[in-house]
Write a structure and sequence with these properties.
This protein is 30% helix and 11% strand. By secondary structure, it is α/β, with parallel strands linked by helices. Strands 1, 2, 3, 6, 7 and 8 form a six-stranded parallel beta sheet that branches. A two-stranded parallel sheet has the order 4-5. The chain starts with a helix and ends with a helix.
């Protein structure tokens, strides 16, 4: 009887032979108030300010490391590799932000492999696993880089809030599994000097109905790049809010518990175009 019913379903067009239902991107239900904390550019304050506060609240986070700018000579504004290793040893994730903070476009994508390896080799030399997450420097990105990122073991890559919102606004959309490409995850918010607690709340509150809010920070403060800096006072308030409101705060690599990075949308720009259209209306 079971096989007769199956045959009827196939003949009726309800089930098409040799076709499989699409696999869902979500591995397990995504709770509301799930946020990811990320920090770019190897800022010294990641170690001196962010690290102790994150440990106090038991929050996870990803630190995207680059040796760009004057990282090698300037240890006032940038971490040492000993400090980066300590972040890893204390349970934080170390991600890849290219060796030279190189914006990856169609014109520079042929340099991506060496840029990734530059950070991966330093991680290996310091007893840190090869990174499995990536942050696009300067918010430049291209789908032409996807295959190279995957070849280097990158599962998730975070961009900024553009092109949906102008870069200068620091605004963005929460990650929608199944619609956003795992290698083109949007920042729900990119903290800026003019940010206040209302901006953090607006960003974090997007983490609901199956969406995950990915927060992007630079230095707290960023003593080398004041246009993307967050004050220590504001940063402390942001973390306190997330703690009091019982947000679950994780590193980018921890997304694999909830999302399968192998399942990608057919068109990575479809969700971006839909958001831009929505903002215009």
């Amino acid at each position: 009887m079971r096989f007769v019913l199956l045959g009827w379903l196939i003949l009726s067009g309800i089930i098409v032979a040799d076709e499989k239902p699409p696999q869902p991107a979500v591995r397990k239900p995504i709770p509301d108030r799930l946020v990811v904390l990320t920090f770019d550019d190897s800022s010294k304050s990641h170690f001196t300010v962010a690290r102790p506060l994150l440990k106090e609240y038991g929050f996870g986070a990803t630190f995207f490391i680059t040796e760009g700018f004057d990282f090698k000579e300037n240890k006032r504004d940038y971490m040492t590799w000993d400090e980066i290793r300590q972040l890893h040893e204390e349970g934080f994730e170390i991600g890849n932000h290219t060796r030279d903070h190189l914006g990856i476009t169609d014109k520079t994508v042929d340099r991506l492999a060496e840029q990734l390896e530059g950070i991966a080799s330093q991680c290996k030399a310091n007893g840190i696993p090869s990174p499995t997450t990536f942050a696009w420097p300067g918010n430049a990105s291209t789908p032409a880089a996807f295959a190279i990122l995957q070849q280097h073991g990158i599962q998730f890559a975070r961009r900024g809030g553009a092109p949906e919102y102008p870069y200068e606004e620091g605004r963005g959309f929460a990650f929608e599994p199944g619609s956003d490409h795992p290698l083109l995850l949007p920042s729900a918010g990119d903290a800026r000097p003019k940010w206040a607690i209302q901006d953090l709340i607006r960003t974090a509150e997007q983490a609901r109905d199956g969406r995950i809010a990915i927060l992007q920070f630079h230095g707290v403060p960023d003593t080398a790049h004041d246009w993307v800096s967050s004050s220590q006072q504001n940063f402390e308030a942001y973390l306190k809010y997330l703690h009091l409101e019982k947000y679950k705060v994780i590193a980018l690599k921890d997304l694999q518990e909830y999302v399968d990075p192998q399942i990608v949308p057919e068109d990575p720009n479809a969700i971006i175009d839909a958001r831009k259209t929505k903002l215009k209306n």
